[in-house]
Each structure stands twice: as structure tokens, then as C-alpha cells.
Amino acid sequence: MKAAIVASLVGSAAAFAPTSSGRAGTSLAVEKSKALPFLPAPANCEGYVGNVGFDPLGVSNYFPVDYLREAELKHGRMCQLAWLGYVAVDLGMRVPGYPEAMSSASSAAAHGPAVEYGALGNILVWIAFAEMTSWIGVSQMLQGSGRAPGDFGFGKKFLDGKTDAQIESMKLKEITHCRAAMLAFSGVVTQSVLYDKGFPYF
User: Fold this and answer.
1) Which residues of 165-195 are buried (b: 16+ CB within 10 A; e: fewer)?
2) Between residues 13 and 191, which one has the greater pLDDT?
3) 94 annotated among ligand-binding-site residues
4) What pLDDT digit, counting tens, does each position of 86-133 carry?
5) How far, in Å, are 66, 130, 132 from residue 141 at the CA level?
6) How many domains does the chain have?
7) Does any domain span residue 87?
8) Do 128 and 69 sit in the same domain of this protein?
9) How far apart are CA 17 and CA 38, in angstroms?
10) 156 in any annotated domain
11) Backbone φ and ψ of 111, nearest 5°
12) Is 131 part of any known ligand binding site?
């Protein structure tokens, strides 16, 4: 008799107990970012080479990731060249034919003389031309042409005969160097201005 009462109490209590479904369990298991484990992984960045889930502001939710990757590659490539040019000037490399004010200026102090001589205006024109022509490819990419971000057709011969894994590895190396160059150029400019010394700027 006592066993029957206990069984009925346990059965009635179990009727009001919360049940768990597989769907509720998976909704709570959100994949976390590798770079920032306290944030969810940005879903739109999945499948891109070099993705470590770093998007704390959620920019990939508002802009096409192809466009963002294009910008990242462009700025990274420019910073690789810029770091090399900045340091080369401070090590004494000069283009022949420029006036003394420009030839003797350090990289940090070259802006003023370059504006006076007109060199900076020429650079602006060429950069504007490059931006306008490159936008044709970017625009076609955003309209679904299948063009890969940053692909301007240069260096394709280096991919001949490579496996998909090797191509992915080369893309990963490029994006890694691009990101390092953006930090490196920011650092070299900041340090050269703060310490007002030539290379290595300390």
C-alpha cells in the first residue's frame, strides 16, 4: 500500500517536471569565436581563409564579407609596400632628381615637402585612377560574377599545378602577412614620430 502511494506521488511530480527537447538543447549551444571566446562566432565569416571569428562589432552582419575581405587584402598589400618604402627612405634610399628639401626629409617629415613639390598631388591622381578601375572588378564581384576577393589576375601562374590544400595554404599566408603588415606599418609610423629617430626607431 505504501509503495503504491509513493509511486503515485512520484508519478504526479514527474508530470509537472520540465522536459528537455533536442531542439531546446541545441539552441543554447551557440558556437563561440576562436579569437574572442566570450562572443558567438560570426556566421557570415564561415568558409573564408584565415577566419578566426574576430568580428566584435558584428560588421559582417551589415556588409558583404566579400567586400570586407577585398578591403582587408587591399589595405594589407598596401601596408606591406608602405612599410618597405617607409623604412627604405629612412635608410637613405632616394629617387634621383628631387629637390634637397625632399631628399633630406625623413619619412615622417616628407609630407610637407612632397605637397610643395607637387609629388603628393601626382600620387593622389594615380591612386584615384587605380581605385576607379579596381571598382569595376569589385562591383562585378558584388553582383555575383564569381570573382574572388582581391583577385586582379596577377600571379596566377604560381597556382598552376597546386592542389586545393596548397592554394588554401598560400591564401592563408597572404592574409596573415597582410594583417601583420597593417599592424607593422601602424607601429613603425607611431614609433618614428614618438622617438624622432631613424630606423629602427628607438
Assistant:
1) eeeeeebeebbeebbebbebbeebbebbeee
2) 191
3) no
4) 999 999 888 787 777 777 888 998 888 888 888 888 889 999 999 999
5) 8, 17, 15
6) 2
7) yes
8) yes
9) 32
10) yes
11) -60, -50
12) no
Residue range of the domain that includes 3: 1-44
The C-alpha cell that represents 143 in the structure block? 553582383
Q: Are residues 99 and 186 in the same domain?
A: yes
Question: 111 labelled as ligand-binding?
Answer: no
75 annotated among ligand-binding-site residues: yes
pLDDT digits (tens, 9 = 90+) for 53-81: 999 999 999 999 999 999 999 999 999 99
Residue 169 is placed in which grid cell? 595554404
Distance from C-alpha of 56 to C-alpha of 83, rounded to nearest angstrom: 27
Q: Over the stretch 146-178, which tens digit does the pLDDT of each residue have?
A: 999 999 888 888 888 899 999 999 999 999 999
Does the annotation list 72 as a binding residue? yes
Q: Is the pLDDT of residue 16 over 60?
A: no
- Is there a binding annotation on residue 23? no
Has 191 been labeled as part of a binding site?
A: yes
